[in-house]
Description:
- Chain A is of the alpha/beta class and 273 residues long.
- Chain A contains twelve helices and ten strands.
- The longest helix of chain A is centred in the middle third of the chain and has 20 residues, at 133-152.
- Chain B is mainly alpha-helical.
- Chain B has one domain (2-50, 142-376): ABC transporter involved in vitamin B12 uptake, BtuC.
- Chain B is globular.
- The interface between A and B is large, with 50 and 33 residues.
Amino acid sequence: MIHSDIHNPDPGTDSTILKIDGLTKFFGGLRAVHNFDVEIKKGELVGLIGPNGAGKTTIFNMITGIYPVSAGSIVFKGQEITNRPAHEITQLGIGRTFQRIRIFPNLTVLDNVRVAYHSHAAYNLFDGVLRSRHFSQGEQEMTETAQEFLAVFGMEDLQETLASNLPYGAQRRLEIARALATAPELLLLDEPAAGMNPHEIIELMDLIHFIRDRFHLTVFLIEHQMRVVMGICEWMTVLDFGEILTRGTPQEIQNNPKVIEAYLGSQAIRTVA
Amino acid sequence: MLGTLMAISALGLNLKYGYTGLFALGQAAFYGIGAYSSALITKDWASGWSGNPAGGLAGVLALEVGFILAVIAISYLKIGSLRHRLREGLSKWLTDFEASVLATTVTLVTGVLIIVVIGGGSGWLVRQAVLSIVPPVLGALPPAISQQVIFALALLAGAVLAGLAGFLIGLPLLNLTYDYLCISTLGFGIIMYVFFNNADKLIPTLKGARGMVGIPNLTTWPWVFICAVVALVVMRNFIYSSTGRAILALRDDPIAAETMGINTSKLKILAYALGCAYAGLAGGLYAHLYSFLHPSNFTWLKSIDPFVMVVFGGVGSMTGTILGAYVFEILLEGLRVLPAALVDWRYVLYALIVLVVMLFRPQGIMGTKEWGFLKLPRIANRKHQQEVPAEATPIEAQAVENQES
């Protein structure tokens, strides 16, 4: 009941799920993002790449309502979400993970996932305090759904472990599981492969493909590691100094001299050429 | 008894500080609000300072109902966004500046009108209703029973008033974090202390700095015990509900909690107001324990006491908080038996003990652990659930047999 929409697939059509126009962000006098636009269609796996400090995470923070937008508009499923509170944006169907893992360290693995159901909870505060029938039913429903989720990610045996005691890779998986539990249609992944070893990266790429197909998601991801973006993204946007440098398929990007320049400096172009 | 009472207040602080992560120091102010308002009610019933024995009850209830209804009206009518909408609408005909001034004025006037009409009106209605209904109804009961009923109502009204005060203070302050929140709540504590000192100018019977006397001596051990148990059970059920989990998540990482679809500002205010209501309940019990209230019992220094209890017992542990409260009171009150020359040393002793605990066990005696029924209920693993056969296990079968024989 909590998750009817995630288990009832709505096969990807051609419709636009996220449309950003003229997105701009100033931090005081610093222009972090300038005139960013993108249009993502349902079911796509899109990348956002660029050197350090290019403004990628700032864009994610504006989409999810953590930073106020200086100018521009963000439209999600035909609905204007610019400057809406972050929790409302999540409830509308945008889930995200963070570059530096932000799990709830003092909660158990199961509770980390169950927290995501709070806004869908089938009982209210008074049921909880009085321990009514609604409470036990709602709680059981939440627990079962959360356990199903953990099972999908192979973490059901860890449910009573404190999240801070998990190994790094498992914390990443938990963060993704938790984001999925909010029943998103669009999932924003902020450098999911950061700090992973090559073996874990391959697992992660499989996982991203798997969750996209299993939950019928649209995925928008920031990534630094070229092999990840090249391996999984259908197309991508390259950002440099807050502005769009270019966009295209992985092959186009790989051979684009402007991208090589942004990443490696103009010296490198001459060497390559 | 005082220990149990302080434990209730400390439980409230533990909710704010231990569970929600709000570093707030104003607990004594809310303790005082609960104490004075409930004392007003029972004193009126016992000795009738206002001319009508239910006058105190009527006044406090009117204030509460009026406040709640005004808040509901304001949030229901979305007064907050009225200014914005008006300005957009008006800017078609007027310049930006004119539109903005007009919209702001209209919004402010509407807001004040709503508070006066809905808040004041419903308050007045409630006051008239209580004044006309309560004395004859309770007068029909034997005096001993009606006294207890008034006491229960007074405790409840005091707790609610403290909670509402917490809500009002929390609205602007809870967006602050750590030291800023600490200083500003401390400031509120000092304001309330000054208010209690001069309260006789508002309601003469509060007696201000001379200390309020004539409060009936109603706090008995059963009352304290029942209040403490109810407070504890409510707190436990609250923390182990979905809202409680959301609050714990908010403490661990507010931004991540927000992206989990949790309205963190709302939850913070809820937890803060509930914590304040606990302080108000404890204050109400305190007022009727010694039948004397003096503002010096509610200085900001007294806000440190529950804080020390929570930190000593274990931040984020109900068991620890209660333990901390008892240790605190037993040390301070119990050591009064010491010879007169040594009595004042008990503060030194207490400080030393706290210091030693902090050095060797910085997470407090209990850490975040709980005992007995306060423990987090365990959740069976899905795999194990499936393995367990449907029929009773041998131990259960044994238990049934034992019962039958």
